[in-house]
Amino acid sequence: MDNENDLWRVRLDKLSLLRQRGIEPYADRYQRTHQALEILEQFQELEGNKVRVAGRMMAKRDQGKVIFTHIQDFSGRIQIYIRKDDVGEDLFDLISKFDIGDIIGVEGVVFRTKRGEISIHAEKVQILSKALRPLPEKFHGLTNVDLRYRQRYLDLIMNPDVRDAFVVRSKVIRAMREYLESQGFLEVETPTLHTIAGGAAARPFITHHNTLDLDLYLRIALELYLKRLIVGGFEKVFEIGRNFRNEGISIKHNPEFTMMELYQAYANFEDIMELTEHMIAYIVEKVHGSLTLTYQEQVLDFTTPWRRLPMLKGILEYAGVDFRTILTDEEARRAAKEKGLKVEENASRGKIINAFFEEYVEPKLIQPTFVTGHPVEISPLAKRNREHPEYTDRFEVFAYGRELGNAFSELNDPIDQRQRFEAQMAERDQGDDEAHMMDEDFLQALEYGLPPTGGLGIGIDRLVMLLTDSASIRDVILFPTMRPKEEVGKE
Fold first, then answer.
1. Are 52 and 106 in contact (CB under 8 A)?
2. Does 300 share its domain with 441?
3. Which of 1, 213, 474, 478 has a CA between 20 and 30 Å from the CA of residue 258?
4. How many alpha carbons lie under 13 Å from residue 443 in its C-beta half-sphere?
5. Cα gap 245→261, rounded to integer Å
6. Is 114 a member of any domain?
7. pLDDT tens digits for range 94-122
């Protein structure tokens, strides 16, 4: 029998002992008066007063007639002083058998020990939940990254600082809501199950509805249903919700992620650009307390206004290639070959422009930057620029070389939109699984009339990464997508 099973058996024996003594080891409730941090911060007011606290035992020292233990709740840790003469011999003997990891409730008086540590002098102690598995060894903690993501509950117990990132995440979302509601936006909810996977270039997850005998897709974007609401007469709407994309996993990508999308009638991408920089600046200052922050040792300044950079200008600046003089697909493919940039054999000029941008420009965009002038081929839902119809009225916003958001003047010409969908379908027929599907219902909605509209999508996870100095998206998602443990290492 291995050591883990031995420990399991020992703890099971202790569980049986509790029940033999008529003690229920899994309590129904416990009324607390304070959390640990409150007592530490309000010691002068609370000294000598009786309090009730509860938390997980994280350390324990048995000194014969006295037991010192530290319990941890969501707010922090506090020391508990338990003396045999105060709690009685039977309870003291029982407490001595409690294990690290057990959750207990304590009633006692707030005081400071001779060593100066704020503590609670216990009068009553109650087991609230018996832990049958031991916590990771205290000196090494939980350091295995894979295990930390896979067993996030242990990560949160052993590494309390991890919680801070998720507190920040909550504050980011709350601040975003505050800002949008202050601007007159209404929060709505749209379907997660779609009959058409639309609104983005991505491979969807497919499921099946048995009663309808119908294949459905987990949504890859919030966009198309929100724009239907604008057709229906709503003028400012937003949604914060989960999207699902059946694609690779990296420090920047998780198959399940959170997006905020908003749509504003009678606005264009320039209006949305102004809204975006002010909204993100508001969130950064509200959550971080300053418009400057350090991410991965790089100082980022979110003071508005942010840099505006046309995509072609960026390629000329960082790659030395001038697409104003490269006008055909063949010339573009030749330029890519000269630079050693791999593109599809029949790639269009627009897609090659995007490939140049991603390779040479994107990593250089450290400070908050709006990139504009995206080719039509990579923007199937964006309105064409009137002066240069091969490009669209669109922007992407970058910081630290990573895309935070995407926005454009929405395409509201149903005839043009049908032609774009048809071009996307042709690409699907050629093997591009991420090309947009034909969406007849959405086209029908456009035919009733979509007012001039500006739309925006912001990646919540990436924004939280910046505000928590997190290198990986998995650090800001409580339960990131993982291969099942028994499958790890299998091919």
1. yes
2. yes
3. 213
4. 15
5. 16
6. yes
7. 999 999 999 999 999 999 999 999 999 99
